[in-house]
Amino acid sequence: MNKSIYLDFDTIFDTRLGTLIKYDKKVSDSIMKDHSLYYDNRIYDEFLHINNRLFNKLYSNRDSEILSLSPLSNILKVVANEINLTTIKKLDRQETITLNLTINVYPYKLEDEFLETLRKYLIVYIGDANIDIEYIYIEDKDMTLKYVSDNFDIMFKYDFISWLDYQILSSNYNAPEVLLYIPALSMNPIVSKAETIESVFESLCNMYKYYINIEVLEIKKYNRV
Known about the structure:
The protein is of the alpha/beta class. It has helices spanning 9-12, 15-23, 25-34, 36-41, 52-60, 64-68, 75-93, 112-126, 145-151, 161-170, 189-194, 197-208; strands at 2-8, 98-104, 132-136, 154-156, 175-183, 212-217. The protein is globular.
């Protein structure tokens, strides 16, 4: 039996903070020092001291420099817990389960040495030397729901709406057996102010449940450690 988990670099690393650091270190320091409570409880990616349109432009053009400025996120704790639960079930049922962790490198151009160092770190952090870690480089538009269904049981993704909407519109395929973990963020600042975040995501989960199984995690899971 195989169990496959999908991650990408914008989930493993807090590239939102990396984007703010590249924009202005003083701004990021101020946010982390004086407004960290807001940062860890935000319901929309809108940050103090930077125009939202400018932030979105910088983030959409993020590169290896921004990645190098981005700290690891808390999502690895969630992944490690998921893997540990699988290991416990494996022992209880005396099953042979192969664990696979697939990491999407897109959109970053990274050296093999860095990827190998990260792979070794993840094996130590997760605590399972038998886990198979694979790197892929796939754009969101090419990561179809069929591909997801064929390859993954669990996904962790930060930027999910544009990917999911594109895939739903471009094909009739669905993957309701796949569990997709997403951050508790509203994609619309007006909606987030008009409704509770709980009602927003209850509606979202219901809207997409035919296509994929969604579970919402608090935003701090995707923030810096």
